[in-house]
Amino acid sequence: MVYEDYEPYDKDKITADGELPFGDYPKLEKYGEWSRDPQADYDVKTFKRNYGEPMHIFYDLYMSPRYDISYKPQTPYWLQGVILFGTFFSFVGGFALCEYYDIRFTVAKVPSEKQFPYQGKVHYTFEPAE
């Protein structure tokens, strides 16, 4: 890390983000592993890290199977909620209408007579073979 880029955490007080004092540990940008370039050539490909790269103080929280702080959803959260509840209430409304108008969708098979290739011919018996 270049000396000009080094900025330590405050040693005596809790920061505005509610973080505890961490001594002279460098204050680094928060990013998750999923946000890093997947095509880059890393020393440790599993964690998308290079040797000697400084780690954030909460690195264990931003690892790949955990929360990605820099994630930006493609669909806004309000639209996701509208889609979720719209789909749910559409199904509930559809079932309510089917109950109200007594609409039944059956999938039961209608019984029919057994079909054999030749009528009157014995295909098998339970008698012992001679």
TrEMBL record:
Alphabetical keyword list: Membrane, Transmembrane, Transmembrane helix
Protein's UniProt keywords contain Membrane: yes
Pfam families: NDUF_B8 (PF05821)
Keyword Transmembrane applies: yes
Cellular component, GO, one term: mitochondrion
Bilayer-crossing regions: 77-98
N-terminal signal peptide: none
PANTHER family xref list: NADH DEHYDROGENASE [UBIQUINONE] 1 BETA SUBCOMPLEX SUBUNIT 8, MITOCHONDRIAL (PTHR12840:SF1), NADH-UBIQUINONE OXIDOREDUCTASE ASHI SUBUNIT (PTHR12840)
Name the UniProt record assigns to this protein: NADH dehydrogenase [ubiquinone] 1 beta subcomplex subunit 8, mitochondrial
